[in-house]
Amino acid sequence: MSFIYIALNTFREAVRDKFLYLLMGFALLLILVARAVGWVSAGLDNKVTTDLGLFAIWLFSALVSILIGTGMIYKEIDKRTLYTILSKPIARWEFVLGKYIGLLLTSTVSLVGLSLAFLIYLKALGSPIDWAILQAIVLTFFEIVMVTALAILFSSASTPILSAIFTFMLFAVGQLTQWLVDFSTVVKTGSALTTRLLDGVYLLLPNLNNFNIRQQAVHATSLGKTFAIPPDQMLAAILYSLSYTAAVLLLAVLVFRRRNF
Amino acid sequence: MPSTADATPALKMSGLRMIYNPGIFRRKKVALEGLDLEVPAGSTYGFLGQNGAGKTTTIKILVALQYATSGRAWIRGTDIRDNAARSQVGFMPENPYFYEYLTAAETLDFYAQLSGVPKNARRKRTDELLELFGLTHAKDVPTREFSKGMRQRVGLAQAILHDPPVVILDEPMSGLDPLGRRDVRNVILSLRDKGTTVFFSSHVLGDVADICDRVCVLHQGQKISEGPITSLLSGRVLEVDLSATGIPAAGVPGVPEIARRAWHDGVLYHVLVDNEELAQKAKALIEGAGGTLRRFVPHVESLEEYFVRVTGAAGAKRVEGEGAIAAPSSTKLPAQTAESEKGGAA
Fold first, then answer.
1. CATH number for the domain harbouring residue B271
2. Which residues does B339 contact at the CB level (< 8 Å), separation at least 6?
3. How confident is the model at residue A192 (pLDDT cuts 50, 70, 90)?
């Protein structure tokens, strides 16, 4: 149960850091200016506002995870706060899990806060709010679940700068992973080895494209459709997120478990 | 309440060996070379050694911050690989540091949670410790605003929060002013009075001599001396300092020949000799010359002098053995125990 204490403490420390509010401030600013961009897009102001708002929620929630998370465990080692924690009767996996949950809690609060602000703003503007928009926000959350795990993995093994670079790279590459599937399909007629290689790389890299339904949500809302994607597709994306996260966290625990401090 | 009569050692190490492997192109470093050590329950134990002797490595292994390359260790009979071993120990690292945004009260409450202090007792216990360590006025101040001495006190408080039977402190007096050192000493003494085993490393040998009943001296990863301080020091006289009045400025014939140093400061005649036998001869010569002895002080070996002597001797043996780091098993130094020390003195 010690991981709960570590999680709550991690969350408490993160919410007392001004950096979190700086990031959230930028996100709110982007949501607000979305309307201004909408005005110059003749006839598309609602669509542009919704699109940019969802984009701001996604980007800044990911930034909270990456920028705070990648230095999280390293900072504990560097400042030796870890010494007094690991010398207590807790297992190392509890420490990693606690850090992960604490960081995820921070990102979730940020995401929920931004989403509420966004929805209130949409309501005030008279823009339609459908389940499709909520679907996009929920899938953003499950993308953050994965990105947070990656940040913790790299943080448990490397310096904050390297961790941030690696996590950003995977975050960026993860948006394009679908391309590998498409490419694999194209080359299926060619070398079997190439196809297997591409399939292997696809399995290893996070497919964050699974969670990007922002365009569909905006489109569905403008057409008056209830859902952006069918519920079964959404469930599959959620299960993928949870499985990938479990695997990444397991790896983080394995890396962290044998380290000497 | 821990019992001092407990036969199970508070700490036991058997063949602890630690090799740091910094990478392919860099030489391996042997930090510990098969350390065997037993710390009796209820003792106040000083763990001594020069910088790099392996003290911190040993302590980190005991509290699971590092994994020994080989060997085993137990805390009150529980293998250190078992998490339960750490519920019996309180640990303060050298120069402890805490979460900057937490206040002193929040910091202690957090550690109380991790130490398994029941929820209904946490508040009372943290308040008690804040008062004990003179931090009540700073309970709502973030620890980032704390001085080094205050952080050290928080470090000690978090180590004893759950009233552990064994307390391990790494350089608890490091960098503290005299008042801070006195506070730490008082805490260690009060723990000793309660029967808690205190195992600590320190370079402040005067304090170690005052508060410890046993010490172990580590040198380049090996135990070179271990035992009760009273036995190790054994009252060996290093020199005798004599002073007398009624002696002319020219001094006393025969004294300079037996003294290490003899001089007249205009009032007193001072003589420094190597042992008590020579001191008795000097005394007889001074009194024979009509002088009156005002001072006769034998200087027995202090812990610091003992430490310098044994580490110096071990260093010399190492130089003779050459390559001990590269091939540790072939040049292992025999550990000097209180018993062998007594034998040597005899």
1. 3.30.70
2. B227, B231
3. confident
CA gap A133, B204 in Å, rounded? 66
Its domain, for residue B279, covers: 237-300
- For B117, half-sphere exposure in the C-beta direction (CA atoms, 13 angstrom radius) is 22
pLDDT band at B337 (very low <50, low <70, confident <90, very high): low
**Would you place residue A160 in the very low, low, confident or very high pLDDT band (cuts 50, 70, 90)?**
confident
ipTM: 0.85
Q: Is B99 on the interface with A (CB under 8 A)?
A: yes
Transcribe B141-158 into DSSP letters: SBGGG--HHHHHHHHHHH
- Helix (H), strand (E) at residue A163: helix A160-174
pTM, two decimal places: 0.84
Distance of residue B258 Cα from the nearest chain A Cα, in angstroms: 56
Residue of A nearest to B62 (CA): A87
Where residue B176 sits, what CATH number does that domain have?
Answer: 3.40.50.300
Number of domains forming the structure of chain A: 1
Going by pLDDT thresholds of 50, 70 and 90, the confidence category of residue A186 is low
Residue A197 placed within a domain: no
Mutate to test the interface with A, among B80, B114, B154 (most CBs of A within 10 A): B114
B343 within some domain: no
For B161, phi then psi, to 5°, come to -50, -45
Pair B152, B186 in one domain:
yes
Residue pLDDT, tens place only, B203-257: 889 889 999 999 999 999 999 999 999 888 877 788 999 999 999 999 999 999 9
Residues in chain B with CB shorter than 8 Å from the CB of A73 are none
How does pLDDT run across B44-74, given as a tens digit for each residue? 999 999 999 999 999 999 999 999 999 999 9
Q: B227 with B272, same domain?
A: no
The strand order across the sheet containing B336-337 reads: B89-92, B166-170, B197-201, B44-49, B214-219, B222-228, B336-337
> Are residues B147 and B28 part of one domain?
yes
Whether B74 and B182 map to the same domain: the answer is yes
In a domain, B341, yes or no: no
Chain A residues inside the 8 Å CB shell of B87: 89
Distances (CA, A) of B325 to A120, B18, B45, B319: 69, 12, 27, 11
Dig out the tokens for A73 from the structure: 């465990």
Structural domain range at position A218:
2-175+212-257
Judged by CB atoms closer than 8 Å, whether chains meet at B92 and A13 is answered as no
> Residue B21's pLDDT is what?
83
Model confidence at B331, pLDDT cuts 50, 70, 90, reads very low
Statement to judge: residues B104 and B82 lie in one domain? yes
- Work out how many domains chain B is built from and give that number: 2
The per-residue pLDDT for A188 is 61
Whether chain A has a CB inside 8 Å of the CB on B92: the answer is yes
In a domain, B291, yes or no: yes
- Selecting from B66, B93, B116 the residue whose C-beta is nearest the C-beta of A80 gives B93
> What is the Cα–Cα distance from B184 to B148, expressed in whole angstroms?
13
pLDDT band (50, 70, 90) for residue A128:
confident
- Residue B85 pLDDT exceeds 60: yes
Beta bridge pairs of residue B299: B239
The tally of CA atoms less than 13 A away on the side-chain side of residue B335 is 18
CA distance B83 to A257: 13
Flag whether B75 is in a domain.
Answer: yes
* B250 and B226 within one domain: no
